[in-house]
From TrEMBL, chain A:
Domain EfeO-type cupredoxin-like: 11-103
Organism: Phyllobacterium myrsinacearum
Listed name of the protein: Amicyanin
SUPFAM superfamilies linked to this entry: Cupredoxins
Superkingdom field: Bacteria
From TrEMBL, chain B:
Domain DUF4142, chain residue ranges per copy: 28-168
Full protein name: DUF4142 domain-containing protein
Keyword Mitochondrion: no
Pfam families to which the protein is assigned, alphabetical: DUF4142
Residues spanning the signal sequence: 1-23
Keywords: Signal
Amino acid sequence: MVLQLKAWISVVLIMGLGSIAARAETIRVTIEKMVFTPAVITAKVGDRIEWINKDIVDHTATVKGRWDVVISSGKAVTLQLERAESVDFYCRFHPNMKGRVTVTP
Amino acid sequence: MFCRTMTALAVLSLLGSTHLAHAADKPTDPQIAHIAYTAGIIDVEAAKLAIAKSKNKDVVAFARDMVRDHDAVNTQALALVKKLKVTPEDNDTSRSLVKAATVERAKLDKFDGAAFDKAYVTNEVAYHKQVNGALETLLIPSAKNAELKSLLETGLKIFQGHEQHAEHVAAGLK
Ligand SMILES: [Cu+2]
């Protein structure tokens, strides 16, 4: 009970701090006809990217050695950006699909 | 041995493209649907052979991608022809594709291990190149129905992705 209460308090605290620091945003990236839109993304640490795949085939948003998000046909997947960096991403299944994301602190 | 295979491949793809060019007296939509569908089935069959034979994880992963994507495109193609009430029609181009694929499969069957991987992936690059060339220069320009044309255009982008993916896998085998 005490433990639960403590956990609850810390959740509230984290949420509170989060909203003071900066409101995290969700950036929607649609994949349609083999194209990421937008293909050039700028975001802040803590923001999320929601990948929406409208194609009939599965895709990925991959940064070699960093992240690998598989987005099945007709599905959406959310990725939280945890590091300030500027990286190129591509689809592992179709390397002709490319984009770039710049994450600032 | 590998050189001979390469030459045979080159001749084959040359024959293939000549043949496709000959049939350039504008294939009809039912013929185009048949050609595109057949080309997909051929690649799925080759991929299934690779999944069964290869022990290389990149090659097997690539082959699985081929099965998944070509099945998805063909499912869409079938749904479209049904909706349009079009019956895919067999034709010389489809027949020559099947003939070439039968020869290629018999050849692939004889290889094992790294030699198989190399032969399969090399053929995947060549095959996607050939099919993409046919889509670009013949099938898409000839397609009359807008929805069929649009599906072929999306298909072309997907298969161009496969061609690059196959090139990456091929580079990794060296
Ligand atoms: Cu993709």
